[in-house]
Design goal:
about 90 residues, mainly alpha, Arc Repressor Mutant, subunit A, two-stranded antiparallel ribbon, disordered N terminus
């Protein structure tokens, strides 16, 4: 069986191009973000978050970690406290 790498069509940002290529394990990312390894691995298995598989091992780049962190960001100007309408 042969496999073929496919492009996501997404170009890396200037920041991503300047970062050294380093991959983090599930354990490392879970510790960095303060989340459980089980949740992180489950989300990756469901293809709900960006990740990379290298030699069958689940890995994350700094860009993946940043995207995961930013996905949970709340903008108080957009989702702030509701005010009563007079």
């Amino acid at each position: 069986m042969t496999t073929r790498a496919t492009s996501t069509g997404r170009r890396p940002s200037a920041r991503e191009q300047d970062e050294p290529l380093q991959h983090y394990s599930v354990e490392e990312v879970a510790e960095i973000l303060g989340i459980s390894r089980r949740w992180l691995a489950g989300q990756a298995a469901e293809r709900s978050i960006r990740c990379t598989y290298i030699a069958g091992k689940l890995r994350f780049t700094a860009a993946h970690i940043r995207a995961l962190s930013e996905a949970g960001e709340v903008d108080p100007n957009r989702y702030g406290r509701r005010t009563a309408v007079a």
